[in-house]
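Need tokens for this chain, all 206 residues.
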Amino acid sequence: MQLKNSIIAIIVLFIMCCSSRFAHAQRGGIIRNQGFYLTLGPSYGQGIGLETDYGINTDIFSPYFVGIKTSINQYLGYKTSVGAGIGYMRYVSPRMNVLPISVNFKYFFKEIANTFLIYTEGGFAPRLESGKQNKGFIYEAGLGYRLNINRSNSFILFQLGYNSFKTNNWDWSIRQPDFSYDDPYKWYYLKRSSIILSVSFTRSYR
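Here are the structure tokens for all 206 residues:
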């Protein structure tokens, strides 16, 4: 029930952030989709699932993460852009820290400054902590809304999506009774699925 309420709260917050300014989209006629733009902002992810081949009950965990990421992006036209970025994500229950390096693609529904968009991004998170093998692939996809700030080259970007991170080399701190460090199959995979909400400050340059 707590997980369900958290997901509902994230979705409601995203809708409120977008709809509170939706009327301004009719006046956002300035085209800003030219040149390149930078983004920087925090994110929060509510876990919706854990998968592993270790053979333990993953329901005992309450996974979530907090993070921050930045990216540099280039418009390919008035409705599309590509970019690359780097971030920091701190996962909780079970705990891990990763440094994802990713590429992204965005499609803007309209050419005006205030517009909805869809996005996808993916990449690889190298090991961040010595003694930990929590490296793996990460990807994300979802819906967003770009809000212009006072008819300038600055924007607030809201994004709500699905985030997945999988490592094939996870060392569980919870040991099974027959666990042995001499076992050549010490490492197990761990896949984390989350609903992610991101709010980023965006600045475009021509």
